[in-house]
């Protein structure tokens, strides 16, 4: 039994349309993988399927983590196993203060480890939680007041993304999937987020960072870079592949593959405002 996340020949439908068309990818702990690709290539579909969003139907293949096919597990079970997803579009949840949300999530995550089965008695004292929260707010340069604000309500785009990373820092997952956490962030925020991920880096942490831009990879320095087009990983390489994409865009790969991109698609694919 290994702790790697192993995606084998994964196919995913949304409303009966096949969007992910046979992805194979293994993320070992200790590694950072980047998935890049044009808009609409199925990156978020892959991420949502890995975490277990009910709208995404895995029709073929399996995803093995800790000796189980996690496609058979509920999202909360996957989270307790050590998986984490930072959403591309985080939802606002009115009435739930960020700190309460994080404490509940942490309790649920830890119940597996200490065998208390979610009976609401975390081993962690509240003071310890508060300290963890305050420290990580500071790491992400978020004001203390965020702890008491309702989850993502009225947060700017960049603040929402940093709140996702705050969850990651508090929950300390073993495999984190970041879906375009860098999109919509200014350069300083990109750095802050990348540094937070880098802090977790080590033998017990693996990361699948989905991004449209090479920029965050300057700070994240992935071990492996993959390009996803039309539901498949069409190219894999080292960090140099990301630089090549930065310099040349995606269309050379598409041309290599025999795809013709319309001008409009190119603009959508490459010109998205960050
Ligand atoms: P990416 O994250 O790479 O930009 P997505 O996974 O979001 O791509 O989308 C892949 C394709 O699936 C797109 O063609 C998109 O229009 C389609 N799609 C995504 N979400 C839905 C949905 N909820 N219903 C129908 N089609 C969807
Ligand atoms: Mg996406």
Task: Output the keywords.
alpha/beta, binds adenosine-5'-diphosphate, four-stranded antiparallel beta sheet, six-stranded mixed beta sheet, 10 helices, single chain, 38% helix, 274 residues, Rossmann fold, binds magnesium ion
What would you note in describing this structure?
This protein is an alpha/beta fold. The chain has a single domain (4-236, 257-272), classed as Rossmann fold, CATH 3.40.50.300. It is built from ten helices and twelve strands. The strands form three sheets. Strands 6-9-10-3-11-12 form a six-stranded mixed sheet, with helices on both faces. The radius of gyration is 19 Å and the shape is globular. Mean pLDDT is 89; it is low at 269-274. Bound molecules: adenosine-5'-diphosphate (ADP) and magnesium ion. Magnesium ion binds at residues 43-44, 88, 179-180.
Topology:
Layout: E1 5-14, E2 17-27, E3 32-36, H1 43-51, E4 56-65, E5 68-69, H2 75-81, E6 83-86, E7 93-97, H3 98-114, H4 126-139, E8 150-151, H5 157-171, E9 175-179, H6 187-200, E10 206-210, H7 217-220, E11 224-229, E12 232-237, H8 239-248, H9 251-257, H10 263-270
Parallel strand pairs: 3-10, 3-11, 6-9, 9-10
Antiparallel strand pairs: 1-2, 1-4, 4-5, 7-8, 11-12
Helix pairs in contact: 2-3, 3-5, 5-6
The site of magnesium ion has 5 residues, from helix 1.
């Amino acid at each position: 039994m290994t702790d790697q996340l192993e995606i084998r020949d994964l196919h995913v439908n949304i409303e009966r349309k096949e969007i992910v068309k046979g992805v194979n990818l293994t993320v070992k702990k200790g590694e950072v993988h980047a998935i890049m690709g044009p808009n609409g290539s199925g990156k978020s579909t892959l991420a949502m399927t890995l975490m277990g969003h009910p709208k995404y139907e895995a029709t073929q293949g399996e995803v093995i983590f800790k000796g189980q096919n996690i496609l058979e597990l509920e999202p909360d079970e996957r989270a307790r196993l050590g998986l984490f997803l930072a959403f591309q579009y985080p939802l606002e949840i009115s009435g739930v203060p960020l700190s309460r949300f994080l404490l509940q999530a942490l309790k649920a995550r830890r119940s597996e480890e200490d065998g208390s089965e979610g009976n609401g008695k975390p081993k962690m004292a509240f003071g310890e939680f508060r300290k963890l929260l305050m420290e990580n707010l500071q790491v992400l340069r978020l004001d203390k007041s965020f702890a008491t604000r309702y989850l993502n309500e009225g947060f700017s785009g960049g603040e929402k993304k940093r709140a996702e990373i705050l969850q990651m820092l508090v929950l300390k997952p073993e495999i984190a999937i970041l879906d375009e956490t860098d999109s919509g962030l200014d350069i300083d925020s990109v750095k802050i987020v990348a540094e937070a991920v880098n802090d977790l880096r080590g033998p017990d942490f693996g990361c699948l960072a989905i991004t449209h831009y090479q920029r965050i990879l300057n700070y994240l320095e992935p071990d492996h870079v993959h390009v996803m087009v039309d539901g498949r990983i069409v190219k894999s390489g080292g960090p140099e592949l990301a630089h090549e994409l930065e310099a040349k865009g995606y269309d050379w790969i598409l041309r290599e593959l025999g795809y013709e991109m319309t001008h409009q698609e190119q603009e959508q694919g490459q010109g998205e405002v960050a």
